[in-house]
Give the backbone structure.
Amino acid sequence: MQHPAMHPLPGSRIVHYAGDRLRFTIDHPTPGETGWKAMLRTNLTRAAEAREEVISLSGARSSEPRTFAGASWRDIPLCPTGDGWALDLALTEVGYFRAKAYCVDPRGRQHWPEGEDVGISVHPDHLRTGNTIYCAFPRMFGESRNAKTTRIPALEEQLKRLDESGFTVIPPSGKLRDLTACVPHIIETLGCRILHLLPIGPTPTTYARMGRFGSPYALLDFTGIDPALVDFDRRTTAVDQFRELAYAVHLRGGLVFLDIVVNHTGWGSRLLDRRPDWFKKEPDGAFHSPGAWGVTWGDLVELDNSHPQLWEATANALITWCRRGVDGFRCDAGYMVPVPAWQYIVARVRQEFPDCTFLLEGLGGSWEATESLLTEGGMQWAYS
């Protein structure tokens, strides 16, 4: 007896959007013989159960691949057709799912198609079209935004002398409200629907500093907002002014993406002070700085994502940003964070914000890492 043929083909990977329908079919192994039936084994329609299982397994306290009990899986009967069976299934939930149809003969024996499960990545419905991204560095939206050059030779000579004398000189910065004023131009004139912000947290300004402001990727606080980006306004907080920006984007049908750093923090971060055991160290006990292509980023210290407690802290930070109006995250160096960590983080965030989008920065990572994060890791997009 030949293996039954299934469509979609076993082992295939499919991208759909919430609200789509997906048709599964399987051929009858012995046409004309009665007493057969067909089932679809899948975790489609069970996203909440799948998330709960991922979260509950975080207690294993290991970054190694985990074996799930399959609590989210079930068998759905297929309907008979002339030469086999079929099922038209509505895709209502965001996430990565698997499915495979099989036949059961009159004696109760199962007959499976050859090949792996079908992988189905279901994206939020609002990501179908119009996904042009405008990347903004809020510091650059001040007075220098319209300047032909930001170099002022006479001023730089003065700053050089101050630097040599040990002073820290921080130039004026653009504010969140400066960027908010540009939202109509970004969305209505340029036609960009997604506003992607580089990290907006506080950074080192007196030590381990790269550039006069400090690198935006040397975050000192996962949920903090750099005071340099905030107008001194006794009526509002820094979070209020960020919400003003998010509201301006949402009012025009846009989305807000925030750059997040999950692989490292800046030297002297709050997390480094509170939980130094969550960071990688060199054999001599010094904290380890990450790097790539032969370059070490000395203003950073690398996190050790083998600690599930760290995953929880990261997830809580992302949920905080979602509550402030963020719709998705660009995950800096995301390929350096293990899949189990992302599974937990994504599951926690999607418990409260099921349409949250995760954009993987895979620069420097292998294709295998990217593929794993776009499937089992639960992310939607990637670029390198």
